[in-house]
Amino acid sequence: MTKMTLGTHPYLLGFDQLERLAERAAKGAEGYPPYNIEHRAPDGFRITLAVAGFAEDDLSLTVEDRQLVIRGRQAEGGDERVFLHRGIAARAFQRSFVLAEGIEVEAAALENGLLHIDLRRVTPHGIVKTIPISRK
């Protein structure tokens, strides 16, 4: 007996992309940097990442194929500091979030070591389309 998946179910046409999105979301569940996700009524969300030590120029945000990708890489410092203890992580990171259809990135701001990314759900207009039937 074969396993029924979203891509092979006869009533769910075109949902094979949903399976790929779920697989992509499950990848890269690394714990750095830590983050929060808030629901902001009525149709908004906020992702907040703790990026202590990163400047605006060290961070980049892109949306690639309905996937929000946040990358951080600090410039190599040529300073001669000698650390007795180094507890603030300075390593590069990449954190990804799969966005549902209709979710758009509205703004991003860096404040007190926290990167805030505001998202908004855009409601599509419901359109009823009548398909004419032709005789062949």
TrEMBL record:
Protein name, per record:
Heat-shock protein Hsp20
The family database entries (SUPFAM superfamilies) matched by this protein are listed as: HSP20-like chaperones
- Residues of the signal sequence? none
Where does the SHSP domain lie?
A: 26-136
- Which protein family is it in? Belongs to the small heat shock protein (HSP20) family.
Q: Domain of life, per the record?
A: Bacteria
Q: Which organism is it from?
A: Paracoccus salipaludis
Entry's InterPro entries? Answer: A-crystallin/Hsp20_dom, ACD_IbpA/B, HSP20-like_chaperone
